[in-house]
Amino acid sequence: MHKTRIDLPEKSRRKLVDLLNARLADAIDLKLAAKHAHWNVKGPHFISLHELFDGLAGALDAPIDEMAERITALGGTADGTIGLVARRTSLDPYPAEIVSGAGHVEALANAVAVFGGGVRKGIGQAGKLGDEGTADLLTGLSQEIDKQLWLLEAHQQAES
Predict the structure, then answer these.
(1) Closest by alpha carbon to 38, among 51, 25, 29, 27?
(2) Domains delineated in the chain
(3) Which parts of the chain fold into alpha helices (H)?
(4) pTM reported for the whole predicted model
(5) Which of 54, 81, 91, 109 has the lowest CB atom count within 10 Å?
(6) Alpha carbons 79 and 100: distance in angstroms, whole number
(7) Which residues partner with 100 through β-bridges?
């Protein structure tokens, strides 16, 4: 841990750095899965899904940067290399063989839901560690990821 004047105990900061690095790995993994879907989607709804998947990837840019910067502010090191992300992510491997729009929507919706659950769990953990700043960061991310899940699930819902 690097020195900082942030007034949280080092033990708490270590736990927060670990928590944030876990969510950072998931976010980077999810962003890359969304880009994979963006590049490889095929079918009659190509353009709308191509843009939807790119929007999901883009929506993760700022939160990824914010989590990484929060990690370093707390005195930690942000684990952002592809090797570290691959070892740390809690998301299932993205099925690379998918080409259909419906298949990508289903796979991404599943991944977004798992990611959102981890983020929500992290909010409570950060609060218990006395770090309302990290809890607030994760709360904003939770709202954004729930919105992204809604956009994906809307493609799966039948018209009334």
Answers:
(1) 51
(2) 10-154 (1.20.1260.10)
(3) 10-40, 46-59, 61-73, 82-88, 101-128, 132-154
(4) 0.96
(5) 81
(6) 33
(7) 42
| Tens digit of each residue's pLDDT (9 = 90 or more) over 117-156 | 999 999 999 999 999 999 999 999 999 999 999 999 999 8
Nearest to 24 by CA among 59, 74, 73, 60: 60
Q: Tell me which residue has tokens 């880009």.
A: 35
Which structure tokens are listed for 116?
């959102």
Question: Which of 80, 84, 53 minimizes the C-alpha distance to 67?
Answer: 80
* 89-123: pLDDT as tens digits: 999 999 999 999 999 999 999 999 999 999 999 99
Q: How far is CA 34 from CA 60, 75, 76, 87, 105, in A?
A: 10, 30, 28, 19, 10
